[in-house]
């Protein structure tokens, strides 16, 4: 028996938030590109490049969210929920490429500091605008990112931009007060250093989903104990837990029930108890149980 309750993580609200964040990010990116051209700031240009990848990431996330909302069919029985994980995978790859580019450019500027001339005032003004815009975008995505891997990827992108804008502001203040031009390149290296761990974290989570590992907050041993505590249950085996995307765990198991339960026709009650337990205690809305009589053997060779 299956429970196909919707997870609610791919709704229109998420798409609306992604679209608003995309509009904010794209607008600020244009401002930063102009500001980088006027000021000659690599840090500001790096932040603009980061904003460009964020805009691309938000486009990917928005498309993935739309695709993931498509209903299941006979060919794709789980629907298109994995599109979110694929979108997040592309986001993580973009982040890594960006960090390498920023680091190389920053090192070149540190090696040749005489060639660097940065205007601090436009650099500071544009960085402050970016900080405010990123703060708004983060606030918009903060709730939705808890239930969607795809939205979380976009959220992490925006969070990195906010930190990057703060680094650019600090560098601009140093340039204005001391005239120390390498501060711009140093801020760029800091931005690159902040990008890498976020990208790795996102990619690790995506690999976990695509590798069909059990969600980190779901403990199979505890689920077994709950199942075995159900009246009429004598054993459980072939337990599998994975997730289609973040916030959409799936569970299946073979449950051995006693003869009295089968004879009295109480299997429906057991299924209701088991699925209710999975939904309320472990937030698993899609669960499948195969009820078996004692002595029935059909074990998964990979278990």
How is the secondary structure organized here?
Layout: H1 12-39, H2 42-68, H3 82-111, H4 120-141, H5 149-178, H6 182-210, H7 220-228, E1 233-243, E2 249-257, H8 259-263, H9 267-282, E3 286-293
Helix pairs in contact: 1-2, 1-4, 2-3, 2-5, 2-6, 3-5, 3-6, 4-5, 5-6
Structural features, described:
The protein is 65% helix and 9% strand. It contains nine helices and three strands, in the order αααααααββααβ. Strand 1 and strand 2 (249-257) form a beta hairpin. Helix 2 (42-68) runs antiparallel to helix 5 (149-178) and helix 2 (42-68) packs parallel to helix 6 (182-210). The longest helix is centred in the N-terminal third of the chain and has 30 residues, at 82-111. The chain is elongated, with a radius of gyration of 25 Å.
């Amino acid at each position: 028996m299956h429970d196909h309750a919707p997870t609610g993580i791919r709704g229109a609200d998420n798409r609306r938030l992604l679209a608003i964040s995309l509009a904010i990010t794209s607008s600020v990116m244009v401002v930063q590109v102009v500001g980088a051209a006027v000021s000659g700031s690599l840090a500001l240009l790096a932040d603009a490049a980061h904003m460009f990848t964020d805009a691309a990431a938000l486009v990917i996330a928005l498309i993935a969210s739309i695709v993931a909302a498509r209903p299941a069919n006979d060919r794709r029985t789980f629907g298109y929920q994995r599109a979110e994980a694929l979108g997040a995978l592309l986001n993580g790859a973009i982040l890594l490429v960006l960090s390498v580019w920023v680091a190389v450019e920053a090192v070149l500027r540190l090696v040749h500091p005489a060639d660097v001339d940065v205007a601090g005032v436009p650099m500071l003004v544009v960085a402050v605008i970016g900080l405010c815009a990123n703060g708004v975008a983060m606030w918009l995505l903060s709730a939705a990112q808890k239930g969607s891997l795809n939205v979380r990827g976009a959220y992490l992108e925006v969070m990195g931009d906010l930190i990057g804008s703060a680094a650019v502001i600090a560098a601009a203040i140093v340039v204005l007060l001391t005239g120390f031009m390498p501060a711009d390149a140093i801020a760029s290296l800091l931005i690159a250093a902040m990008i890498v761990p976020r990208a790795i974290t996102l990619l690790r989570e995506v690999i976990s989903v695509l590798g069909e590992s059990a969600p980190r907050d779901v403990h199979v041993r505890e689920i077994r104990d709950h199942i075995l505590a159900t009246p009429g249950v004598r054993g459980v085996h072939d337990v599998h837990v994975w997730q289609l995307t973040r916030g959409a765990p799936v569970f299946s198991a073979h449950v051995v029930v006693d003869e009295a339960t089968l004879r009295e026709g109480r299997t429906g009650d057991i299924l209701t108890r088991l699925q209710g337990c999975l939904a309320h205690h472990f937030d698993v809305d899609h669960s499948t149980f195969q009820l078996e009589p004692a002595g029935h053997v059909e074990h998964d060779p990979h278990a």
